[in-house]
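Good morning C.,

I know you're traveling, so I'll keep this short. The sequence:
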Amino acid sequence: MGKPSRQRALADNEAKAYSRTIRVSPQKLNLVAQSIRGLPAEHALAELSFSRKRIAGTVKNVLQAAIANAENNHQLDVDRLVVSEATVGKAFVMKRFRARARGRVGRIHKPFSNLTVVVREVEEEA
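The tokens, ready to paste straight into the viewer:
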């Protein structure tokens, strides 16, 4: 018995990887995600390898996971993969404080982000 299986949310030529609670603000993470949207997977990996942003290594790991999911779980051709989506979401925010002058408090927000990378297999053009 049990519940009926749910329809697959992605198309047959797509694969996804998801990372939760990345320790960077969504605004900063979106700058890196924006640089790989629409690129072929091979070029996106090269872009992330040589990026000067600290978080680029984490984004590269998520992209590699999406490529591995496409190859192993969905039997897609790795050479024809393109980053179709790279979405950034807001996770929780740790709130800290720092003592300031005259008994006051300076609030410190430490935001976390979520990242979803979807790769799609495209047909080669003649």
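Safe travels,
E.
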